[in-house]
């Protein structure tokens, strides 16, 4: 097995064709750097899509993984375990939440949130209160309920009848939300900064008004912080900078720093709608995942790392503004903390992917968010040297695209 030739062609032979990965196959990572099978080195501004919040193979995570790996891997929810309880306690202490539910991914955390919101509304207000309002271009995962709540038809259509009573309004459109929300609304679900949809920040007044409308109609406010959570925007969770507290919050991606884990956070009152057996997950609260997540959480939830995110944002903005001053290809650089997007101007509409491919040739990994935004979601502890070197490579990539 170990001397099997593993090439990109093997992907096409043996994998379900729902992805189109790059030719490059990385085999090793350290900090914000990756190396491929040929030993070629890359700077990683993609961070495993906002997952590797401490870069690759951070010593604190490697040590937690090794230590727990020699103790206990899995029990199931028939038994509880120390890492899960410690992590839950830390999440509760650090946030608005009083209760935590663990699962394995962002979609699962949102699936739990949506089911909890529905059950809570039905139990407390009656069977008519089932409407879920979400936002156009929103992204909440790939299960059938979560793609249906997500605001991108390309992900939700073509699978037959969808879960019912889900409506969408444009993000930041308060009038549209006002017109739709009623006492029949069970929850409003939003990202406190749309990630996959194009790095779109909410207007502060909009978020406040959403909270007030939810309160008026006894609807729960669900913040999907799967991409924004665990330090990404410079706060532990993005809601903390918005002056608005959700009723349910979901976290995944950076929560495990590269090990799969998801969590749903809520209050004791709302959590009570889930009784023994109402919902569950075999792997949820897995000790190995929780031990790694605990180490990631301890490392990220410090003033130095969170302040460092703001500092790094400034390095990026300065570098990207300088590149744009030369090449003039971006309409704006937007986002918050280390979730940043370069938005294509008129001339480069639909061509974000060309920048990604050119960057790869220059040994730099970046992301896109839709066809018009080049997205950066690097390690929260990326060094100044790595940012500078990565931006130098990005400038060469930009030059190539702009000069044809
Ligand atoms: C990535 C993402 C998800 C889905 O997470 P998975 O772990 O892929 O299931 C959900 N919501 C948001 C905001 C995301 O960015």
TrEMBL record:
Co-factor note (free text): Binds 1 pyridoxal phosphate per subunit.
Q: Where in the cell is it found?
A: Cytoplasm
One term of GO molecular function: N2-acetyl-L-ornithine:2-oxoglutarate 5-aminotransferase activity
Q: Which GO terms describe its biological process?
A: L-arginine biosynthetic process
Residues annotated to bind N(2)-acetyl-L-ornithine: 142, 281
**Which keywords, in A-to-Z order, does the entry hold?**
Amino-acid biosynthesis, Aminotransferase, Arginine biosynthesis, Cytoplasm, Pyridoxal phosphate, Transferase
Q: How does it assemble?
A: Homodimer.
Q: Reproduce the miscellaneous comment text.
A: May also have succinyldiaminopimelate aminotransferase activity, thus carrying out the corresponding step in lysine biosynthesis.
What is the recorded name of this protein?
Acetylornithine aminotransferase
């Amino acid at each position: 097995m170990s001397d099997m030739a593993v090439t990109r062609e093997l992907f096409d032979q043996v994998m379900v064709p729902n992805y189109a990965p790059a030719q490059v196959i990385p085999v090793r990572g350290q900090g914000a750097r990756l190396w491929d099978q040929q030993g070629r080195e890359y700077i990683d501004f993609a961070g495993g899509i906002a997952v590797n919040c401490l870069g690759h193979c951070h010593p604190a995570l490697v040590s937690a993984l090794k230590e727990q790996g020699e103790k206990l891997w899995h029990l199931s929810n028939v038994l509880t375990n120390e890492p899960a309880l410690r992590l839950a306690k830390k999440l509760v202490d650090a946030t608005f939440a009083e209760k935590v539910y663990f699962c394995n991914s962002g979609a699962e955390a949102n699936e739990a949130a949506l089911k909890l919101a529905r059950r809570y509304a039905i139990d407390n207000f009656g069977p008519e209160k089932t409407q879920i309002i979400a936002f156009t271009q929103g992204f909440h995962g790939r299960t059938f309920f979560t793609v249906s709540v997500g605001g991108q038809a390309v992900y939700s259509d073509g699978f037959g009848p969808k879960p019912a009573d889900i409506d969408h309004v444009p993000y930041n459109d308060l009038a549209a939300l006002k017109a739709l929300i009623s006492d029949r609304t069970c929850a409003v679900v939003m990202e406190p900064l749309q990630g996959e949809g194009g790095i779109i920040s909410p207007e502060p007044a909009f978020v406040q008004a959403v909270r007030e409308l939810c309160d008026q109609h006894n609807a729960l406010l669900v913040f999907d912080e799967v991409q924004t959570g665990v330090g990404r925007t410079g706060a532990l969770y993005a809601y903390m900078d918005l002056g608005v507290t959700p009723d349910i919050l979901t976290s995944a991606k950076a929560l495990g720093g590269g090990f799969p884990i998801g969590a749903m956070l809520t209050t004791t009152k709302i959590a009570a709608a889930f009784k023994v057996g109402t919902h569950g997950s075999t792997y949820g609260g897995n000790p190995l995942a929780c031990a790694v997540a605990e180490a990631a959480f301890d490392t990220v939830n410090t003033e130095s790392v969170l302040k460092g995110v703001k500092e790094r944002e400034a390095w990026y903005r300065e570098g990207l503004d300088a590149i744009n001053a030369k090449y003039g290809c971006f309409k704006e650089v937007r986002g918050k903390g280390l979730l940043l997007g370069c938005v294509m101007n008129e001339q480069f509409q639909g061509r974000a992917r060309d920048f990604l491919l050119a960057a790869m040739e220059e040994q730099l990994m970046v992301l896109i968010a839709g066809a018009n935004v080049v997205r950066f979601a690097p390690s929260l502890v990326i060094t100044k040297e790595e940012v500078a070197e990565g931006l130098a490579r990005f400038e060469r990539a930009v030059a190539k695209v702009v000069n044809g």
